[in-house]
Amino acid sequence: MDFQTGFFYLFAAVLLFAAFRVVTSRNAVHAVLYLMLAFSQAAALWLLLKAEFLGITLVLVYLGAVMVLFLFVVMMLDINIEAIRRGFWSHFPLAALIGVVVAGELMAVMWAGFPSIAAQAPAVAPDVSNTRELGKLLYSAYLYPIQVAGFILLVAMLAAIALTLRQRKDSKAINPGDQVHVRASDRLVVLPMAAVTKAAPVAETAAEEGKA
After folding, report:
1. From the first residue on, what is the mean pLDDT of each consecutive set of 10 residues in the chain (212 residues)?
2. What is the maximum span of the chain, computed from C-alpha positions, in angstroms?
3. What contacts 19, CB < 8 A, 6 or more positions away?
């Protein structure tokens, strides 16, 4: 067994352990941290498969942005773990069955391999950049699916903003439009009031100050 195979089994074992701990961890913050570990091991597997662009993208996008956002959201939210785990065992048989089916399909694909695809694959020169070829393929043969996926993500983003945009009653925010169009007559009113006491003469006031 060469070093590449050894690293593959090491990264795969850590990935499976991290994924298992994501599901079984009682603390939500620990689950997010284990998920970040799983993503890092998946990026290492991409690097072993000589897909550097996908591995770096997984690290930058998911570990650098998405998972950090998930971590802050989970830490700020008051999640009731007991309420979430109430229906765990009732749904466990169906979830276990689906997991076994998915694991069996993955094992069958990995065991059988892709002999027909490997036989039809053309020889690739060593100086060819897989990132450049991936970009050409995405924006030529898969241009319309990329546009559809981008539109779906845009709709999901707008839906998330619309669902969370609520008018809070306890908010003290002021509409900038109202501030711009405000007039002095709307804010300040001068009321004429008669004097209650008569003002003292200036000379008497100066004399009293001199005595003091």
Report:
1. 84 91 83 88 88 86 81 71 70 87 84 59 67 83 90 90 71 76 78 71 60 58
2. 115
3. 34, 38
